[in-house]
Amino acid sequence: GGKMLAECLGAGLGYRCLDRDTVAERAAASGVSQEELLDALLKPPGFLERFKHKRYQYLVLFQAALAEEVKTGGVVYHGNAGHLLLTGASPVLKIRVIAPLEKRVAMVRERLKMERHKALAYIHKVDEDRRNWTRYLYGVNWEDPSLYDLVVNLDVLGINEACEIVSAAARQQKCFAFSEECMAEMEDLAVGSRVRANLAMNPSTSHLEFEVTARRGRVSIRGKLTGTDEFEEVRRIAQAAPGVATLDLDALSMPSKA
């Protein structure tokens, strides 16, 4: 029911609806395979395990594309991992939709034209993949209610009732009017994600992995370097990203001398 709820919210709030495939298409514009990028988002940890770093690159690109899409507000995103890829942004209202198994089976059978036993197996596999995926990448339990601001149970609520409740919650948020402070916070998220994506795709740093945070133009980068020349490359690439005013590279770990 996530897509239906998102469409109802979009119509009621006057927000744009955004799905995972649209974000993946934007991320793939960086020159990667859209199909492989979606696999990195959807497949369980065993998939592409030999290409673990490539999965990191795809997730970084997806996060950067998602942050760019939502940074100006007025968006309802429906798709897995949104609440994890936008962690720490207070203008984001995180909703989880749950429903009884039999209701989910009926919806899958109607949508995918499956027999009951196949629909049941499909649901169990999707749930297990998501559970493993979030535990593997983020060390969290996908079903943990504390990861969300609101959990909506479609066993007792219809889509319209759920839509009214979520709309009311959205309107109560301090960032509903998207003040200057809220816009700055989302811009910080976009700038940090943009720098990280640029580092992930530049040939001179694409073999490395970084944590990047930004606050009002000051960008901090944490990570482990493998060569002494990489420090200046990180500086050069990061400084070239729009929105970067100053850099903090103190947390970069230099390679040990033999």
Quaternary arrangement of the chains shown? single chain
List how many beta strands DSSP finds: 8
Secondary structural class: alpha/beta
Low-pLDDT residue spans: none
Helix content: 40-55%
Order of helices and strands: HEHHHEHEHHEHHEEHEE
Quick one: overall form? globular
- Strand proportion: 5-15%
Computed CA radius of gyration, to the nearest angstrom: 20 Å
Largest sheet: 4 strands, mixed
Distance between the termini: 57 Å
How confident is the prediction overall: mean pLDDT? 89
The number of helical runs is 10
Q: How would you summarize the topology of this molecule?
A:
Layout: H1 2-13, E1 16-19, H2 20-28, H3 34-42, H4 52-70, E2 75-78, H5 82-85, E3 95-98, H6 101-112, H7 116-138, E4 150-153, H8 159-172, H9 180-201, E5 210-215, E6 218-224, H10 230-239, E7 246-248, E8 252-253
Parallel strand pairs: 1-2, 3-4, 6-7, 6-8
Antiparallel strand pairs: 5-6
Helix pairs in contact: 1-8, 2-4, 3-4, 4-9, 6-7, 9-10
Describe this structure in words.
The chain is α/β, with parallel strands linked by helices and 258 residues long. It is built from ten helices and eight strands. The strands form three sheets. Strands 5, 6, 7 and 8 form a four-stranded mixed β-sheet that branches. A two-stranded parallel sheet has the order 1-2. The protein is globular. It starts with a helix and ends in a 5-residue tail after the last strand. The mean pLDDT is 89.
